[in-house]
Amino acid sequence: MAELNDKGIRINKFLSEAGVLSRRKTDEEIEKGNITINGHIAVMGETVHEGDEVRFKGNLVSAKKNDVIILYNKPLGLVCTSKEADKDSIFRKLDYPGKLIYVGRLDKDSQGLLLLTTDGDLANRIQKSRNNHEKEYVVRVDKDIDENFIKGMRGGVPILDTVTKKCKCVKQGNRSFRITITQGLNRQIRRMCEYFGYKVVFLKRIRELNIELGNLKPGEYRKLTPAEEAELRRLADKQ
């Protein structure tokens, strides 16, 4: 949550981060006159400052503070579901004393960097494909690859009734490569490889936006540093 300061934050961002309305819905409600700041009807682009009283349809809105963002190294065999839905849920293994949501899934057979947060608005902004946010993976397949395969992966692959966006792909070994994508289609990299006749045998996410997995061991997690969080939020806001 962007803290309120002398400069303030825009009313649509304030309500979005407070978990009341999306930014688009906030703009719609402003036009309807349903949002007030210190008793006057808010206008588009107006800012909220420390101590201001914001109400939506007469109900007081409080700023949500102290959102948490965690970097987790998801081990193989765990799934991104609720604790109640699956015995192999990450939330059964992750020893964290608070409710978190994951930012982009990793399937059961994939491992590596997984961001978890209490900030739903941030999670939504990161996951929107139109924002072209980068995610980088190390991948190994079941047989040798060549430059034709690499070029094919880069150029866009027809899967799931669409064609993937062009991406970065670099060969690293006879059967391994790094790939950076900006989408989050269901099992996207696995399906892209299958299109060319390859099966993924190892898939690890090592970066999302500016956040790198580094030396974090499987099953371990840490909070982002203030500098990492600030840059992540800056990148997430770019569209």
Automatic annotation (TrEMBL):
SMART domains from the xrefs?
Answer: S4 (SM00363)
GO MF terms, alphabetically ordered? RNA binding; rRNA pseudouridine synthase activity
Cite the EC number.
5.4.99.-
**Mind telling me which SUPFAM superfamilies this protein's record contains?**
Alpha-L RNA-binding motif (SSF55174), Pseudouridine synthase (SSF55120)
Top-level enzyme category? isomerase
InterPro entries given in the database record: PsdUridine_s_RsuA/RluB/E/F_cat, PsdUridine_synth_cat_dom_sf, PsdUridine_synth_RsuA/RluA, PsdUridine_synth_RsuA/RluB/E/F, PsdUridine_synth_RsuA/RluB_CS, RsuA_PseudoU_synthase, S4_RNA-bd, S4_RNA-bd_sf
What keywords does the record list, in alphabetical order?
A: Isomerase, RNA-binding
What does the record list as GO biological process? enzyme-directed rRNA pseudouridine synthesis
> Where does the RNA-binding S4 domain start and stop, copy by copy?
9-69
Is Ribonucleoprotein a UniProt keyword of this protein?
no
Isomerase among the record's keywords? yes
State the similarity comment.
Belongs to the pseudouridine synthase RsuA family.
Name the UniProt record assigns to this protein: Pseudouridine synthase
Q: Which organism is it from?
A: Eubacterium ruminantium
* Lineage per the UniProt record: Bacteria, Bacillati, Bacillota, Clostridia, Eubacteriales
